[in-house]
Design goal:
Layout lengths: L2 H8 L3 H8 L7 H13 L6 H8 L4 E6 L5 H16 L3 E6 L4 H13 L4 E5 L6 H10 L5 E4 L8 E6 L1 H14 L5 E6 L2 H18 L7 E4 L5 H12 L5 E4 L2 H13 L9 E4 L4 H5 L5 E4 L2 H16 L7 E4 L2 E3 L9
Parallel strand pairs: 1-2, 1-3, 3-4, 4-5, 5-11, 6-7, 6-8, 8-9, 9-10
Antiparallel strand pairs: 10-12
Length: about 325
Protein backbone atom coordinates (compact mmCIF):
# COMPACT_ATOMS: atom_id res chain seq x y z
CA UNK A 1 0.00 0.00 0.00
CA UNK A 2 1.21 3.50 -0.83
CA UNK A 3 0.34 7.02 0.21
CA UNK A 4 -1.76 7.26 -2.95
CA UNK A 5 -3.90 4.28 -1.86
CA UNK A 6 -4.47 5.95 1.51
CA UNK A 7 -5.42 9.20 -0.21
CA UNK A 8 -7.88 7.45 -2.56
CA UNK A 9 -9.72 5.63 0.25
CA UNK A 10 -9.82 8.73 2.46
CA UNK A 11 -11.04 10.90 -0.42
CA UNK A 12 -8.20 13.42 -0.14
CA UNK A 13 -5.05 14.28 -2.04
CA UNK A 14 -1.71 12.54 -1.50
CA UNK A 15 -0.23 15.83 -0.31
CA UNK A 16 -2.92 16.05 2.38
CA UNK A 17 -2.04 12.55 3.60
CA UNK A 18 1.60 13.57 3.72
CA UNK A 19 0.81 16.70 5.72
CA UNK A 20 -1.30 14.73 8.19
CA UNK A 21 1.39 12.09 8.73
CA UNK A 22 4.03 14.74 9.21
CA UNK A 23 1.89 16.68 11.72
CA UNK A 24 1.79 19.78 9.56
CA UNK A 25 -0.59 22.62 10.53
CA UNK A 26 -3.52 23.86 8.48
CA UNK A 27 -5.45 20.55 8.32
CA UNK A 28 -9.03 20.42 9.56
CA UNK A 29 -9.51 18.05 12.45
CA UNK A 30 -12.24 16.19 10.56
CA UNK A 31 -9.85 15.60 7.62
CA UNK A 32 -7.03 14.55 9.96
CA UNK A 33 -9.25 11.99 11.68
CA UNK A 34 -10.47 10.61 8.34
CA UNK A 35 -6.90 10.12 7.06
CA UNK A 36 -5.65 8.59 10.31
CA UNK A 37 -8.58 6.19 10.37
CA UNK A 38 -7.45 4.73 7.05
CA UNK A 39 -3.77 4.78 8.11
CA UNK A 40 -4.59 2.85 11.28
CA UNK A 41 -6.88 0.46 9.45
CA UNK A 42 -4.00 -0.78 7.28
CA UNK A 43 -1.17 -0.18 9.81
CA UNK A 44 0.41 1.97 7.16
CA UNK A 45 3.98 3.23 7.62
CA UNK A 46 5.73 5.42 5.04
CA UNK A 47 8.75 4.09 3.18
CA UNK A 48 11.65 5.83 4.92
CA UNK A 49 13.99 5.14 2.01
CA UNK A 50 11.64 6.82 -0.44
CA UNK A 51 11.15 9.75 1.90
CA UNK A 52 14.89 10.02 2.27
CA UNK A 53 15.39 10.26 -1.46
CA UNK A 54 12.98 13.18 -1.59
CA UNK A 55 14.40 14.94 1.46
CA UNK A 56 18.03 14.00 0.74
CA UNK A 57 18.04 12.47 4.22
CA UNK A 58 18.35 8.74 4.90
CA UNK A 59 18.24 9.00 8.73
CA UNK A 60 20.92 6.30 8.71
CA UNK A 61 24.21 6.22 10.61
CA UNK A 62 26.98 3.76 9.79
CA UNK A 63 28.83 1.99 12.63
CA UNK A 64 32.20 0.34 12.03
CA UNK A 65 33.90 -2.04 14.44
CA UNK A 66 36.84 -4.33 13.69
CA UNK A 67 35.43 -7.42 15.43
CA UNK A 68 31.89 -7.81 16.77
CA UNK A 69 33.15 -10.34 19.33
CA UNK A 70 34.77 -7.58 21.42
CA UNK A 71 32.41 -7.34 24.41
CA UNK A 72 33.69 -3.96 25.60
CA UNK A 73 32.71 -2.29 22.33
CA UNK A 74 29.57 -4.35 21.73
CA UNK A 75 28.09 -2.79 24.86
CA UNK A 76 28.94 0.58 23.35
CA UNK A 77 27.22 -0.38 20.11
CA UNK A 78 24.09 -1.23 22.08
CA UNK A 79 24.19 2.25 23.63
CA UNK A 80 24.72 3.96 20.26
CA UNK A 81 21.89 2.10 18.51
CA UNK A 82 19.52 2.89 21.39
CA UNK A 83 20.50 6.55 21.57
CA UNK A 84 20.22 7.08 17.81
CA UNK A 85 16.87 5.29 17.68
CA UNK A 86 15.50 7.78 20.23
CA UNK A 87 16.39 10.48 17.73
CA UNK A 88 14.77 8.72 14.76
CA UNK A 89 17.94 7.27 13.23
CA UNK A 90 18.65 3.75 12.06
CA UNK A 91 22.16 2.28 12.36
CA UNK A 92 24.02 -0.03 9.98
CA UNK A 93 26.65 -2.10 11.81
CA UNK A 94 29.57 -3.50 9.82
CA UNK A 95 32.41 -5.67 11.14
CA UNK A 96 35.44 -4.63 9.10
CA UNK A 97 38.22 -6.97 10.14
CA UNK A 98 41.46 -5.81 11.70
CA UNK A 99 43.68 -4.86 8.74
CA UNK A 100 43.95 -1.20 7.79
CA UNK A 101 43.05 -2.06 4.20
CA UNK A 102 39.83 -3.76 5.29
CA UNK A 103 38.91 -0.83 7.49
CA UNK A 104 39.43 1.58 4.60
CA UNK A 105 37.35 -0.56 2.23
CA UNK A 106 34.39 -0.35 4.59
CA UNK A 107 34.55 3.43 4.55
CA UNK A 108 33.88 3.15 0.81
CA UNK A 109 31.04 0.67 1.46
CA UNK A 110 29.40 3.05 3.94
CA UNK A 111 29.54 5.87 1.42
CA UNK A 112 27.63 3.69 -1.05
CA UNK A 113 24.88 3.20 1.54
CA UNK A 114 24.18 6.95 1.66
CA UNK A 115 24.69 7.20 5.43
CA UNK A 116 24.32 10.65 6.94
CA UNK A 117 27.14 10.07 9.40
CA UNK A 118 29.59 7.43 10.55
CA UNK A 119 30.82 6.34 13.96
CA UNK A 120 34.13 4.45 13.99
CA UNK A 121 34.68 2.40 17.13
CA UNK A 122 38.22 1.70 18.30
CA UNK A 123 41.71 3.15 17.94
CA UNK A 124 42.46 0.88 14.97
CA UNK A 125 40.72 3.35 12.64
CA UNK A 126 43.40 5.91 13.46
CA UNK A 127 45.52 5.05 10.42
CA UNK A 128 46.57 6.55 7.08
CA UNK A 129 44.44 4.13 5.05
CA UNK A 130 41.24 5.21 6.80
CA UNK A 131 42.24 8.86 6.58
CA UNK A 132 42.68 8.52 2.82
CA UNK A 133 39.38 6.65 2.41
CA UNK A 134 37.46 9.30 4.35
CA UNK A 135 39.03 11.99 2.17
CA UNK A 136 38.05 10.13 -1.00
CA UNK A 137 34.57 8.84 -0.16
CA UNK A 138 33.17 10.68 2.88
CA UNK A 139 34.79 14.09 3.02
CA UNK A 140 31.37 15.78 3.36
CA UNK A 141 29.98 13.29 5.89
CA UNK A 142 30.48 13.82 9.64
CA UNK A 143 32.57 11.10 11.25
CA UNK A 144 32.81 10.56 15.01
CA UNK A 145 35.61 8.36 16.28
CA UNK A 146 35.37 6.52 19.58
CA UNK A 147 38.77 6.11 21.26
CA UNK A 148 40.57 7.26 18.14
CA UNK A 149 41.35 10.51 16.35
CA UNK A 150 42.26 11.82 12.90
CA UNK A 151 43.06 15.45 12.14
CA UNK A 152 40.46 16.07 9.43
CA UNK A 153 37.82 18.81 9.03
CA UNK A 154 34.86 16.41 9.24
CA UNK A 155 36.22 14.05 11.91
CA UNK A 156 35.44 14.39 15.62
CA UNK A 157 36.59 12.28 18.57
CA UNK A 158 35.27 11.15 21.95
CA UNK A 159 37.78 9.17 23.95
CA UNK A 160 39.79 8.44 27.02
CA UNK A 161 43.55 8.86 26.86
CA UNK A 162 44.96 5.33 26.41
CA UNK A 163 48.40 6.44 27.53
CA UNK A 164 46.99 7.90 30.73
CA UNK A 165 44.73 4.85 31.15
CA UNK A 166 47.66 2.43 31.25
CA UNK A 167 49.70 4.75 33.43
CA UNK A 168 46.78 4.77 35.88
CA UNK A 169 46.63 0.95 35.91
CA UNK A 170 50.34 0.57 36.64
CA UNK A 171 50.23 3.34 39.24
CA UNK A 172 47.56 1.23 40.92
CA UNK A 173 49.70 -1.92 40.67
CA UNK A 174 52.75 -0.23 42.21
CA UNK A 175 50.58 1.51 44.79
CA UNK A 176 49.35 -1.87 46.01
CA UNK A 177 52.94 -2.95 46.61
CA UNK A 178 53.56 -5.28 43.65
CA UNK A 179 57.21 -5.29 42.54
CA UNK A 180 57.34 -7.40 39.38
CA UNK A 181 54.36 -6.74 37.06
CA UNK A 182 54.08 -7.95 33.47
CA UNK A 183 52.29 -6.33 30.51
CA UNK A 184 50.07 -8.41 28.20
CA UNK A 185 48.64 -6.40 25.31
CA UNK A 186 46.92 -6.89 22.00
CA UNK A 187 44.97 -4.83 19.52
CA UNK A 188 46.06 -2.18 17.05
CA UNK A 189 49.62 -0.90 16.83
CA UNK A 190 48.38 2.58 17.72
CA UNK A 191 46.71 1.33 20.91
CA UNK A 192 49.73 -0.63 22.05
CA UNK A 193 52.10 2.24 21.37
CA UNK A 194 50.01 4.51 23.60
CA UNK A 195 49.67 1.87 26.33
CA UNK A 196 53.40 1.17 26.36
CA UNK A 197 54.06 4.90 26.67
CA UNK A 198 51.74 4.92 29.69
CA UNK A 199 53.59 1.95 31.16
CA UNK A 200 56.87 3.82 30.73
CA UNK A 201 55.41 6.91 32.43
CA UNK A 202 54.39 4.88 35.48
CA UNK A 203 57.67 2.96 35.72
CA UNK A 204 59.61 6.23 35.53
CA UNK A 205 57.73 7.50 38.59
CA UNK A 206 57.94 4.34 40.69
CA UNK A 207 61.10 2.40 39.75
CA UNK A 208 63.07 3.66 36.71
CA UNK A 209 65.44 0.69 36.90
CA UNK A 210 62.62 -1.86 36.65
CA UNK A 211 62.27 -3.84 33.43
CA UNK A 212 58.64 -4.84 32.92
CA UNK A 213 58.23 -7.88 30.61
CA UNK A 214 56.03 -6.98 27.63
CA UNK A 215 54.04 -9.50 25.61
CA UNK A 216 51.96 -8.43 22.61
CA UNK A 217 49.82 -10.74 20.50
CA UNK A 218 46.78 -10.90 18.28
CA UNK A 219 43.16 -10.37 19.22
CA UNK A 220 42.17 -14.06 19.40
CA UNK A 221 39.90 -14.72 22.38
CA UNK A 222 42.22 -17.43 23.76
CA UNK A 223 45.33 -15.28 23.53
CA UNK A 224 45.51 -14.63 27.28
CA UNK A 225 45.60 -18.32 28.15
CA UNK A 226 48.72 -19.30 26.22
CA UNK A 227 50.61 -16.07 26.80
CA UNK A 228 50.16 -16.32 30.56
CA UNK A 229 52.00 -19.63 30.58
CA UNK A 230 54.86 -17.96 28.69
CA UNK A 231 54.94 -15.08 31.15
CA UNK A 232 55.29 -17.42 34.13
CA UNK A 233 57.77 -19.75 32.46
CA UNK A 234 60.02 -16.90 31.32
CA UNK A 235 59.51 -14.60 34.32
CA UNK A 236 58.59 -16.71 37.37
CA UNK A 237 59.14 -13.70 39.65
CA UNK A 238 56.03 -12.01 38.16
CA UNK A 239 53.57 -11.08 40.92
CA UNK A 240 50.94 -9.13 38.90
CA UNK A 241 49.75 -9.08 35.29
CA UNK A 242 48.16 -6.23 33.39
CA UNK A 243 45.95 -7.44 30.51
CA UNK A 244 44.81 -4.89 27.93
CA UNK A 245 41.34 -6.50 27.74
CA UNK A 246 39.31 -8.36 30.34
CA UNK A 247 38.50 -11.32 28.07
CA UNK A 248 42.25 -12.03 27.96
CA UNK A 249 42.43 -11.65 31.72
CA UNK A 250 39.72 -14.31 32.14
CA UNK A 251 41.69 -16.71 29.93
CA UNK A 252 44.90 -15.84 31.75
CA UNK A 253 43.30 -16.50 35.14
CA UNK A 254 42.29 -19.95 33.93
CA UNK A 255 45.93 -20.70 33.15
CA UNK A 256 47.05 -19.32 36.51
CA UNK A 257 44.53 -21.59 38.23
CA UNK A 258 45.84 -24.61 36.32
CA UNK A 259 49.36 -23.67 37.37
CA UNK A 260 48.29 -23.54 41.02
CA UNK A 261 48.69 -19.76 41.33
CA UNK A 262 45.92 -18.27 43.42
CA UNK A 263 44.46 -14.90 42.44
CA UNK A 264 44.96 -12.57 44.26
CA UNK A 265 47.08 -14.27 46.96
CA UNK A 266 49.88 -15.33 44.61
CA UNK A 267 49.13 -13.19 41.55
CA UNK A 268 47.43 -9.85 41.07
CA UNK A 269 45.38 -9.26 37.92
CA UNK A 270 44.13 -5.98 36.46
CA UNK A 271 42.66 -5.24 33.04
CA UNK A 272 42.57 -2.11 30.91
CA UNK A 273 38.98 -2.73 29.76
CA UNK A 274 35.87 -3.28 31.82
CA UNK A 275 33.09 -5.30 30.20
CA UNK A 276 30.70 -7.97 31.43
CA UNK A 277 33.63 -10.42 31.61
CA UNK A 278 35.03 -8.54 34.60
CA UNK A 279 31.83 -8.89 36.60
CA UNK A 280 31.06 -12.56 35.88
CA UNK A 281 34.60 -13.92 36.30
CA UNK A 282 35.69 -15.63 39.50
CA UNK A 283 37.09 -13.77 41.26
CA UNK A 284 35.67 -10.48 39.99
CA UNK A 285 38.37 -8.63 38.04
CA UNK A 286 39.79 -5.26 39.03
CA UNK A 287 39.50 -3.14 35.88
CA UNK A 288 39.87 0.30 34.40
CA UNK A 289 36.50 1.90 33.76
CA UNK A 290 36.94 3.20 30.21
CA UNK A 291 33.66 5.21 30.45
CA UNK A 292 32.31 3.45 27.35
CA UNK A 293 28.68 4.28 28.19
CA UNK A 294 29.43 8.00 28.60
CA UNK A 295 31.67 8.05 25.53
CA UNK A 296 28.97 6.55 23.31
CA UNK A 297 26.21 8.81 24.63
CA UNK A 298 28.35 11.89 23.96
CA UNK A 299 29.29 10.55 20.50
CA UNK A 300 25.59 10.29 19.62
CA UNK A 301 24.78 13.71 21.03
CA UNK A 302 27.62 15.27 19.07
CA UNK A 303 26.60 13.50 15.87
CA UNK A 304 23.07 14.88 16.12
CA UNK A 305 24.39 18.39 16.81
CA UNK A 306 26.73 18.21 13.82
CA UNK A 307 23.91 17.04 11.54
CA UNK A 308 21.78 19.95 12.73
CA UNK A 309 24.55 22.42 11.94
CA UNK A 310 25.67 23.13 15.51
CA UNK A 311 29.29 23.44 16.59
CA UNK A 312 30.81 20.74 18.78
CA UNK A 313 34.35 20.26 20.15
CA UNK A 314 36.65 18.39 17.81
CA UNK A 315 37.91 16.27 20.69
CA UNK A 316 36.18 15.33 23.94
CA UNK A 317 38.39 13.51 26.47
CA UNK A 318 36.94 11.74 29.49
CA UNK A 319 38.89 10.72 32.59
CA UNK A 320 38.76 7.03 33.63
CA UNK A 321 39.15 5.41 37.03
CA UNK A 322 40.13 2.00 38.38
CA UNK A 323 37.26 -0.14 39.68
CA UNK A 324 38.49 -2.16 42.65
CA UNK A 325 37.21 -5.72 42.76
CA UNK A 326 38.76 -9.00 43.91
CA UNK A 327 41.88 -9.71 41.85
CA UNK A 328 44.28 -7.25 43.51
CA UNK A 329 45.35 -6.98 47.16
CA UNK A 330 47.63 -4.99 49.42
CA UNK A 331 51.09 -6.59 49.28
CA UNK A 332 53.07 -6.42 52.50
Amino acid sequence: MTIYDIAKEAGVSASTVSRVMNNKPGIREETREKVMSVVNKYNFAPDETARGLVKQSTKTIGLLIADVRIAFYMYGIHVIISEMAKRGYCCILLSTGVSNEERAEYIKILSQRRVEGAILIGAGYQCDEVREAIGLYMKDVPVVMINGRLEMPNVYSVLTDERRNTELCFDYIFGKGYKHPAYVGCGSMVSNQKRLAGLADSVEKHDPALGVPVYIGDEAIGFGYDITRRVMEEHPETDAVYYSADCFAVAGMRMLEEMGMDVPERMGVITGEDSIYSTIAHPYITALDGRINDICVIACQNMIKILSGADVPKIVTLMPEVIERETMREVK
